Amino acid sequence: MPILGTSQTIPCCPATRTLKKEGTRNRGENQKDLKKKLDGSCVSGNRNGMEKIKCDTEAVDSSIKSIFSEGGDLDFAEQLWCKMKCVSSYQELIACFTLVLESLECGEIQPWIHHGSGSLLSKLIQQSYHGKMEAVSLTGITPVQMLLEIGLDKMKKDYVNFFIGQELATLTSLDCFISTSVDLQEQVHCVQKLHHMLEIMVSCTVLLQFKHESLFPWTQICIKYYRENPPDEKHVFQLPASSALVKKFYQDSHPEVWKVDRSSGHGPKEVKTTWQVSTNPPVERMMSSNTESHPWTLRV
Hey, which residues does 278 pair with through a beta bridge? Predict the structure, then answer.
Protein backbone atom coordinates (compact mmCIF):
# COMPACT_ATOMS: atom_id res chain seq x y z
CA MET A 1 0.00 0.00 0.00
CA PRO A 2 1.25 3.53 -0.55
CA ILE A 3 2.82 5.37 2.33
CA LEU A 4 1.40 8.81 2.91
CA GLY A 5 3.55 11.73 3.98
CA THR A 6 2.56 15.38 4.00
CA SER A 7 4.06 18.66 5.13
CA GLN A 8 2.49 22.06 5.31
CA THR A 9 4.87 24.92 5.93
CA ILE A 10 4.27 28.19 7.73
CA PRO A 11 3.91 31.13 5.36
CA CYS A 12 6.94 33.40 5.34
CA CYS A 13 7.89 36.70 3.86
CA PRO A 14 9.53 37.02 0.45
CA ALA A 15 13.30 37.33 0.41
CA THR A 16 14.54 40.86 0.66
CA ARG A 17 17.34 42.17 -1.52
CA THR A 18 19.92 44.48 -0.02
CA LEU A 19 19.82 47.80 -1.85
CA LYS A 20 22.89 49.88 -2.43
CA LYS A 21 22.77 53.07 -0.42
CA GLU A 22 22.57 56.29 -2.34
CA GLY A 23 23.43 59.76 -1.14
CA THR A 24 19.95 61.15 -1.55
CA ARG A 25 17.42 61.29 1.28
CA ASN A 26 14.55 60.15 -0.95
CA ARG A 27 16.18 56.81 -1.79
CA GLY A 28 16.95 56.19 1.89
CA GLU A 29 13.31 56.88 2.81
CA ASN A 30 12.12 54.56 0.04
CA GLN A 31 14.31 51.82 1.41
CA LYS A 32 12.82 52.25 4.88
CA ASP A 33 9.29 52.15 3.49
CA LEU A 34 10.06 49.03 1.49
CA LYS A 35 11.60 47.30 4.51
CA LYS A 36 8.56 48.13 6.66
CA LYS A 37 6.21 46.68 4.07
CA LEU A 38 8.28 43.50 3.71
CA ASP A 39 8.62 43.12 7.47
CA GLY A 40 4.89 43.64 7.83
CA SER A 41 4.21 40.95 5.27
CA CYS A 42 6.53 38.58 7.07
CA VAL A 43 4.97 39.22 10.47
CA SER A 44 1.46 38.86 9.07
CA GLY A 45 2.26 35.58 7.34
CA ASN A 46 4.01 34.12 10.35
CA ARG A 47 1.22 35.30 12.64
CA ASN A 48 -1.43 33.52 10.56
CA GLY A 49 0.64 30.35 10.47
CA MET A 50 1.36 30.46 14.19
CA GLU A 51 -2.30 31.08 15.00
CA LYS A 52 -3.25 28.01 12.96
CA ILE A 53 -0.67 25.90 14.77
CA LYS A 54 -1.80 27.26 18.15
CA CYS A 55 -5.44 26.50 17.34
CA ASP A 56 -4.61 22.93 16.27
CA THR A 57 -2.44 22.38 19.34
CA GLU A 58 -5.16 23.62 21.68
CA ALA A 59 -7.71 21.34 20.03
CA VAL A 60 -5.48 18.28 20.53
CA ASP A 61 -4.55 19.26 24.11
CA SER A 62 -8.21 19.80 24.99
CA SER A 63 -9.16 16.36 23.67
CA ILE A 64 -6.33 14.69 25.58
CA LYS A 65 -7.23 16.53 28.78
CA SER A 66 -10.83 15.31 28.56
CA ILE A 67 -9.54 11.72 28.56
CA PHE A 68 -7.89 12.17 31.95
CA SER A 69 -11.13 12.69 33.81
CA GLU A 70 -11.16 13.18 37.56
CA GLY A 71 -14.71 11.91 37.87
CA GLY A 72 -16.28 8.52 37.40
CA ASP A 73 -15.34 5.24 39.05
CA LEU A 74 -12.22 6.30 40.94
CA ASP A 75 -10.90 4.33 43.88
CA PHE A 76 -9.36 5.94 46.96
CA ALA A 77 -5.79 6.00 45.61
CA GLU A 78 -6.92 7.60 42.34
CA GLN A 79 -8.95 10.26 44.14
CA LEU A 80 -5.95 10.92 46.37
CA TRP A 81 -3.75 11.40 43.28
CA CYS A 82 -6.20 13.93 41.85
CA LYS A 83 -5.93 15.94 45.07
CA MET A 84 -2.23 15.53 45.79
CA LYS A 85 -0.77 16.03 42.30
CA CYS A 86 -0.84 19.78 42.96
CA VAL A 87 1.06 19.77 46.27
CA SER A 88 3.51 22.65 46.33
CA SER A 89 6.15 21.37 48.76
CA TYR A 90 7.78 18.29 50.23
CA GLN A 91 6.35 19.18 53.63
CA GLU A 92 2.80 19.21 52.24
CA LEU A 93 3.41 15.81 50.68
CA ILE A 94 4.53 14.34 54.01
CA ALA A 95 1.61 15.94 55.86
CA CYS A 96 -0.93 14.45 53.44
CA PHE A 97 0.45 10.92 53.60
CA THR A 98 0.84 11.14 57.39
CA LEU A 99 -2.86 11.99 57.74
CA VAL A 100 -3.86 9.14 55.42
CA LEU A 101 -1.69 6.51 57.13
CA GLU A 102 -2.80 7.55 60.63
CA SER A 103 -6.45 7.36 59.56
CA LEU A 104 -5.93 3.90 58.07
CA GLU A 105 -4.09 2.64 61.14
CA CYS A 106 -6.78 3.88 63.52
CA GLY A 107 -9.55 2.44 61.36
CA GLU A 108 -11.13 5.85 60.81
CA ILE A 109 -11.35 5.11 57.08
CA GLN A 110 -11.70 1.85 55.17
CA PRO A 111 -11.42 2.91 51.54
CA TRP A 112 -11.81 0.57 48.59
CA ILE A 113 -9.25 0.21 45.83
CA HIS A 114 -9.18 -1.41 42.41
CA HIS A 115 -7.72 -4.88 42.12
CA GLY A 116 -4.27 -5.17 40.56
CA SER A 117 -2.58 -2.04 41.88
CA GLY A 118 1.02 -2.61 42.95
CA SER A 119 1.56 0.67 44.80
CA LEU A 120 2.74 0.76 48.39
CA LEU A 121 -0.34 2.73 49.42
CA SER A 122 -2.65 0.07 47.94
CA LYS A 123 -0.80 -2.63 49.88
CA LEU A 124 -1.16 -0.64 53.09
CA ILE A 125 -4.89 -0.17 52.46
CA GLN A 126 -5.31 -3.91 51.95
CA GLN A 127 -3.40 -4.58 55.18
CA SER A 128 -5.65 -2.14 57.03
CA TYR A 129 -8.65 -4.36 56.24
CA HIS A 130 -7.13 -6.94 58.61
CA GLY A 131 -6.19 -4.40 61.27
CA LYS A 132 -2.45 -4.75 60.83
CA MET A 133 -0.23 -2.40 58.79
CA GLU A 134 3.52 -2.44 58.33
CA ALA A 135 5.38 0.65 59.55
CA VAL A 136 6.36 3.09 56.83
CA SER A 137 8.85 5.89 57.43
CA LEU A 138 7.87 8.97 55.46
CA THR A 139 11.42 10.18 54.99
CA GLY A 140 13.79 10.60 52.08
CA ILE A 141 12.26 9.83 48.68
CA THR A 142 9.61 7.46 50.06
CA PRO A 143 6.74 10.03 49.95
CA VAL A 144 7.71 11.02 46.39
CA GLN A 145 7.79 7.37 45.29
CA MET A 146 4.38 6.75 46.87
CA LEU A 147 2.90 9.71 44.99
CA LEU A 148 4.56 8.60 41.75
CA GLU A 149 3.18 5.08 42.14
CA ILE A 150 -0.45 6.14 42.54
CA GLY A 151 -0.04 8.64 39.70
CA LEU A 152 1.31 5.98 37.33
CA ASP A 153 -1.55 3.64 38.26
CA LYS A 154 -4.11 6.37 37.50
CA MET A 155 -2.54 7.37 34.17
CA LYS A 156 -2.12 3.79 32.96
CA LYS A 157 -5.77 3.13 33.71
CA ASP A 158 -6.79 6.23 31.72
CA TYR A 159 -4.71 5.19 28.70
CA VAL A 160 -6.05 1.65 28.79
CA ASN A 161 -9.64 2.90 29.06
CA PHE A 162 -9.10 5.09 25.99
CA PHE A 163 -7.61 2.43 23.72
CA ILE A 164 -10.07 -0.27 24.79
CA GLY A 165 -13.05 2.10 24.83
CA GLN A 166 -12.26 3.24 21.28
CA GLU A 167 -11.76 -0.43 20.26
CA LEU A 168 -8.21 0.30 19.12
CA ALA A 169 -6.50 -2.35 21.28
CA THR A 170 -7.17 -5.19 23.69
CA LEU A 171 -6.04 -5.49 27.29
CA THR A 172 -3.76 -8.36 26.27
CA SER A 173 -1.96 -6.24 23.67
CA LEU A 174 -1.41 -3.49 26.28
CA ASP A 175 -0.20 -5.78 29.07
CA CYS A 176 3.46 -5.02 28.44
CA PHE A 177 2.81 -1.30 29.03
CA ILE A 178 0.88 -1.61 32.31
CA SER A 179 2.90 -4.22 34.18
CA THR A 180 3.69 -3.39 37.81
CA SER A 181 6.40 -6.05 38.08
CA VAL A 182 9.05 -3.73 36.59
CA ASP A 183 10.79 -0.89 38.44
CA LEU A 184 9.41 2.65 38.60
CA GLN A 185 11.74 4.00 35.92
CA GLU A 186 10.55 1.40 33.42
CA GLN A 187 6.92 2.12 34.36
CA VAL A 188 7.54 5.81 33.61
CA HIS A 189 8.92 4.84 30.18
CA CYS A 190 5.82 2.71 29.52
CA VAL A 191 3.56 5.65 30.35
CA GLN A 192 5.59 7.85 27.98
CA LYS A 193 5.02 5.30 25.22
CA LEU A 194 1.29 5.19 25.91
CA HIS A 195 1.10 8.97 25.86
CA HIS A 196 2.92 9.21 22.54
CA MET A 197 0.53 6.68 21.00
CA LEU A 198 -2.40 8.61 22.44
CA GLU A 199 -1.13 11.88 20.93
CA ILE A 200 -0.86 10.24 17.51
CA MET A 201 -4.39 8.84 17.62
CA VAL A 202 -5.96 12.04 18.97
CA SER A 203 -4.13 14.17 16.39
CA CYS A 204 -5.33 11.92 13.57
CA THR A 205 -8.88 12.07 14.92
CA VAL A 206 -9.09 15.79 15.69
CA LEU A 207 -6.99 17.27 12.89
CA LEU A 208 -7.39 14.76 10.07
CA GLN A 209 -10.85 13.42 10.94
CA PHE A 210 -9.74 9.79 10.53
CA LYS A 211 -12.21 7.05 11.42
CA HIS A 212 -11.80 3.78 13.30
CA GLU A 213 -10.95 1.75 10.19
CA SER A 214 -7.82 3.90 9.75
CA LEU A 215 -6.95 4.39 13.42
CA PHE A 216 -7.03 0.67 14.34
CA PRO A 217 -4.17 -0.54 12.08
CA TRP A 218 -2.15 2.55 12.96
CA THR A 219 -2.52 1.77 16.66
CA GLN A 220 -1.26 -1.77 16.06
CA ILE A 221 1.81 -0.40 14.26
CA CYS A 222 2.58 1.92 17.20
CA ILE A 223 2.08 -0.89 19.74
CA LYS A 224 4.35 -3.24 17.79
CA TYR A 225 7.10 -0.60 17.60
CA TYR A 226 6.96 0.34 21.29
CA ARG A 227 7.00 -3.26 22.47
CA GLU A 228 10.57 -3.47 21.22
CA ASN A 229 11.86 0.12 21.41
CA PRO A 230 12.32 2.84 24.06
CA PRO A 231 10.12 5.96 24.04
CA ASP A 232 11.05 8.26 21.16
CA GLU A 233 8.80 11.20 20.25
CA LYS A 234 11.00 11.96 17.21
CA HIS A 235 10.40 8.56 15.64
CA VAL A 236 8.58 8.80 12.31
CA PHE A 237 5.86 6.18 11.94
CA GLN A 238 5.14 5.18 8.36
CA LEU A 239 1.47 4.34 8.27
CA PRO A 240 -0.35 2.66 5.37
CA ALA A 241 -3.16 4.71 3.87
CA SER A 242 -5.94 3.49 1.60
CA SER A 243 -6.60 5.21 -1.73
CA ALA A 244 -10.01 6.38 -0.53
CA LEU A 245 -8.45 8.00 2.55
CA VAL A 246 -5.80 9.78 0.47
CA LYS A 247 -8.41 11.08 -1.96
CA LYS A 248 -10.59 12.50 0.79
CA PHE A 249 -7.59 14.11 2.47
CA TYR A 250 -6.23 15.95 -0.56
CA GLN A 251 -9.72 17.14 -1.49
CA ASP A 252 -10.30 18.64 1.96
CA SER A 253 -6.78 19.97 2.64
CA HIS A 254 -4.23 22.09 0.81
CA PRO A 255 -0.73 20.74 1.54
CA GLU A 256 2.29 22.27 -0.14
CA VAL A 257 4.17 18.98 -0.50
CA TRP A 258 2.98 15.40 -1.04
CA LYS A 259 5.39 12.48 -0.86
CA VAL A 260 4.43 8.90 -1.73
CA ASP A 261 6.68 5.85 -1.24
CA ARG A 262 5.73 2.58 -2.94
CA SER A 263 7.56 -0.69 -2.35
CA SER A 264 7.40 -3.94 -4.33
CA GLY A 265 9.21 -7.21 -3.90
CA HIS A 266 10.99 -8.50 -0.81
CA GLY A 267 14.54 -8.76 0.49
CA PRO A 268 17.31 -8.02 -2.02
CA LYS A 269 14.74 -7.80 -4.82
CA GLU A 270 12.74 -5.08 -3.10
CA VAL A 271 12.27 -1.97 -5.23
CA LYS A 272 11.25 1.33 -3.68
CA THR A 273 9.86 4.17 -5.76
CA THR A 274 9.31 7.67 -4.42
CA TRP A 275 7.12 10.40 -5.88
CA GLN A 276 7.08 13.93 -4.51
CA VAL A 277 4.56 16.50 -5.66
CA SER A 278 4.91 20.14 -4.72
CA THR A 279 3.03 23.37 -5.32
CA ASN A 280 6.41 25.11 -5.63
CA PRO A 281 8.32 24.91 -8.95
CA PRO A 282 11.72 23.13 -8.87
CA VAL A 283 13.39 26.26 -10.29
CA GLU A 284 12.55 29.75 -8.98
CA ARG A 285 12.21 31.26 -12.47
CA MET A 286 10.12 28.38 -13.80
CA MET A 287 6.54 29.60 -13.36
CA SER A 288 3.47 28.19 -15.07
CA SER A 289 1.50 30.59 -17.26
CA ASN A 290 -1.70 29.00 -16.02
CA THR A 291 -1.43 28.05 -12.36
CA GLU A 292 -5.09 27.07 -12.15
CA SER A 293 -4.73 24.43 -14.85
CA HIS A 294 -1.29 23.19 -13.71
CA PRO A 295 -1.09 23.66 -9.92
CA TRP A 296 1.36 20.79 -9.27
CA THR A 297 5.04 20.26 -10.04
CA LEU A 298 6.34 16.67 -10.06
CA ARG A 299 9.70 15.82 -8.50
CA VAL A 300 11.01 12.26 -8.64
Answer: 257, 297
| Long-range contacts formed by 230-233: CB under 8 A, 24+ apart | 230/189, 231/189, 231/192, 231/193, 231/196, 232/196, 233/196
Residues forming a β-bridge with 283: none
Would you write out the chain's pLDDT as a tens digit for each of its 300 residues?
Answer: 433 333 333 333 333 333 334 444 454 555 555 445 445 544 444 555 566 566 767 777 777 777 776 666 788 999 999 999 889 999 999 999 999 999 999 888 889 888 878 899 999 999 999 888 899 999 999 999 999 999 999 999 999 999 999 999 999 999 999 998 899 999 999 999 999 999 999 888 888 788 888 899 989 999 999 999 999 988 988 877 777 777 776 677 677 787 888 888 888 888 989 988 887 776 665 555 544 444 444 343
pTM for this entry:
0.66
d(CA 202, CA 209): 10
**Are the beta carbons of 170 and 160 closer than 8 angstroms?**
no
Contacts of 63 (CB under 8 A, 6+ apart): 202, 205, 206
Rounded to 5°, angle at Cα 158 from 154 and 159: 120
Residue 127's identity, in one-letter code, is Q
